[in-house]
Amino acid sequence: MTARGAAGRCPSSTWLSPRLLLVCLLVSRSIAKEVSEHCSHMIGNGHLQVLQQLIDSQMETSCQITFDFVDQEQFENDTVCYLKKAFFLVKDIIEENMRFKDNTPNANATERLQELSLRLRNCFTTDYGEDNKSCVRTFHETPLQLLEKIKDVFNKTKNLLETDWNIFSKNCKESFDKCSSPGIEMQQKNDLNPNKFVFHLLVPGIILVLLAVGGLLFYRWKRRIHREPRTLTLNSSVRRPEGSPLTQDEDRGVELPV
Questions:
Q1: pLDDT tens digits, residue range 157-205?
Q2: Burial of 253: CB neighbours in 10 Å, binned 0-12, 13-18, 19+
Q3: d(CA 41, CA 35)
Q4: Cα–Cα distance for residue pair 244/246, rounded to 1 Å
Q5: Cα(142)–Cα(63) distance, rounded to whole angstroms?
Q6: Tens of pLDDT along 218-247?
Q7: What's the rounded Cα separation, in Å, for the pair 220 and 239?
Q8: Do the beta carbons of residue 69 and residue 139 sit within 8 Å?
Q9: CA 158, CA 42: separation in Å to the nearest integer?
Q10: What are the E-state strand segments in 29-117?
Q11: Which listed site, 52, 69, 218, 234, has its alpha carbon 20 to 30 Å from 248?
């Protein structure tokens, strides 16, 4: 009986497995479809308009702020990996650098952008190196320039998601590893550039040489000024006075005995 019962349950088990598998596949496909449609249309034109309003409302100033952002030059033509790296940095910038008085239009706009950043996380796969400082350097720019960078990131992300909702599943580990070093180390590397090293070495040397030559010329000129009156005095003392006896005898043509 037990064997029959066990044997009798086998057909039901083998009959249910394909059905369960089919259900799982249908559910996963529906979820994937939801995610695809969700990511493709997550960034709307309204979000870009909000960013443009933030840009237009900024006062023109030469004052600069400091922030960390992606060094785009290190990604060459790899726009996808550049945006994957920039996305996580934009989220931090919105929270830390874009602060406005509560309940103002600009404050409400930044809150809307923060919510969008949180929802967009589902459209990006996490790769090694996204949260560290590789491919990142420190910028010193105006608030207007910062907002332009953020708008450019959202605009490019929107266009790529509309083309292929799964485009940010690309593994960017290799691209991140190609970045030479974090921003601070990159700056040190630039400081060790041979041309810059020679320049910084030669300039102080040239200045010291010029100062030495200038000091020597000034010393010689000063010495010359002090010597000229003394020379004139000696010349005048050596010159015979007009009324001296020797002069008078010469004028009279006195002949001396041989």
A1: 999 999 999 999 999 888 888 886 544 444 544 444 545 544 556 777 7
A2: exposed
A3: 10
A4: 6
A5: 6
A6: 778 777 777 765 555 555 555 555 555 545
A7: 28
A8: yes
A9: 8
A10: 65-70
A11: 234
